Amino acid sequence: MKKENYNVAVVGATGAVGEEMREVLEERLFPIGELRLLASERSAGQVLKFGKKKICVEILRENSFKDIDIALFAAGGAVSAKFAPMAVDQGAVVIDNTAQFRMEPEVPLVVPEVNPQEIAHHVRRGIVANPNCSTIQLVVALKPIHDVAHIRRVVVSSYQSVSGAGRSGINELSQQSIALFNGGELKRAKFPHQIAFNLLPEIGSFKDDGYTSEEWKMAAETRKIMHEPELPLSATCVRVPVYIGHSAAVHVELSRTMEAEEASEILREAPGIAVQDDPAVSFYPQPWASTGRDEVFVGRIRQDSSHPKGLVFWVVCDNLRKGAALNALQIAEEMISRKLV
Ligand SMILES: NC(=O)c1ccc[n+]([C@@H]2O[C@H](COP(=O)([O-])OP(=O)(O)OC[C@H]3O[C@@H](n4cnc5c(N)ncnc54)[C@H](OP(=O)(O)O)[C@@H]3O)[C@@H](O)[C@H]2O)c1
């Protein structure tokens, strides 16, 4: 029987994704009984607002999940590796934002607009994984096109904001920008080089084949979500000095020629997408305008001049929201409506 209210724990509640989770939980009037906010000893005792309530942040411990129905994890892979199985043992379903379980065959990797049916498989491990932020916006845009004309190849270049690297990424861009204007010393910890007024074609760690772990995740996760294990996909992921909102230039090769108008029509009808595409008035998706919005924005839709069956478009979305917190809560809502929790 469907419950009226669910006890929810947010692990990493003080982080960039955790803060967005609290906001989205409140905005969507999620049916919450108790909300437990968990973080490390660094933030223990901090009091955070949730609606009219004030909730004290607790230290994440082995027994933190007693009576919790849904545990939303956003505190890094090592924390999920250790504590997610404990949450499951204590009776919670886990929705995990980290990369820890995403590629495990028994763990569904879900974007509700694309593969909601996968959620039911969570019963094997008790964990549903939320994909990488740049993967989520990509598959939301690819799926409706793929349903109409099979995608044979994808080449994507992403322009990813510093909030994708968490609070410390945001702080590093601020510190460096202020220092550059004031002649101060630039501090560097999170990114390998200066990020203010710069671009870094390095997100994650380099692999032997020359790709980074972020680029590898985009390819592997897209294949898993779209059930296309052989889909050729090559990504170049670039960190840019933007606070919130990831952008991507996407080139796809289809099984047939598709006019830009048809692609635009398909994308306009697709769930979770807003098309912003009017070159005459310079109307196209931009990261600053995507901040705080739920949609995946698509624009600059055109045929690829280098390939007769090619299509090109530009995709932007709030990486903290649809790229993380909102997608996780949509999974939770889907679980509730399917009586899986
Ligand atoms: N940022 C994004 O766009 C994005 C998108 C998708 C997925 N993710 C994933 O989500 C996770 C969190 O990302 P974020 O951007 O929110 O990072 P963040 O801003 O650095 O926040 C990290 C959070 O984890 C908590 N934490 C760290 N170590 C902990 C420990 N040992 N025990 C308990 N809590 C601990 C921190 O608590 P304290 O305040 O106590 O330090 C903080 O609340 C990462 O795995 C990331 O890959 C991020």
Order of helices and strands: EHEEEEEHEEHEHHEEHEHEEH
Please report the first level of CATH classification, the CATH class of the largest domain. Answer: Alpha Beta
Uncertain residue ranges: none
Q: Ligands in the structure?
A: NADP nicotinamide-adenine-dinucleotide phosphate
Q: Beta-strand level of the residues, as a percent range?
A: 15-25%
Task: Characterise this structure.
With 341 residues, the protein is α/β, with parallel strands linked by helices. It has 8 helices and 14 strands. The strands form 3 sheets. Strands 5-2-1-6-7-8 form a 6-stranded parallel beta sheet, with helices on both faces. A 6-stranded mixed beta sheet has the order 10-9-11-14-13-12. Strand 6, helix 2 and strand 7 form a beta-alpha-beta unit. The chain is globular. The mean pLDDT is 96. Bound molecules: NADP nicotinamide-adenine-dinucleotide phosphate. NADP nicotinamide-adenine-dinucleotide phosphate binds next to helix 1, helix 2, helix 4 and helix 8.
Notable traits:
single chain; 341 residues; alpha/beta; Rossmann fold; Dihydrodipicolinate Reductase, domain 2; six-stranded mixed beta sheet; 8 helices; 14 strands; binds NADP nicotinamide-adenine-dinucleotide phosphate
Question: Gist?
Answer:
This protein is of the alpha/beta class and 341 residues long. The protein contains 8 helices and 14 strands.
Produce the secondary structure layout.
Layout: E1 6-11, H1 16-27, E2 32-39, E3 47-50, E4 53-56, E5 58-59, E6 70-73, H2 77-89, E7 93-96, E8 127-129, H3 133-148, E9 151-160, H4 167-182, H5 213-225, E10 233-239, E11 246-254, H6 260-269, E12 273-275, H7 287-290, E13 296-303, E14 310-317, H8 321-337
Parallel strand pairs: 1-2, 1-6, 2-5, 6-7, 7-8, 9-10, 12-13
Antiparallel strand pairs: 3-4, 9-11, 11-14, 13-14
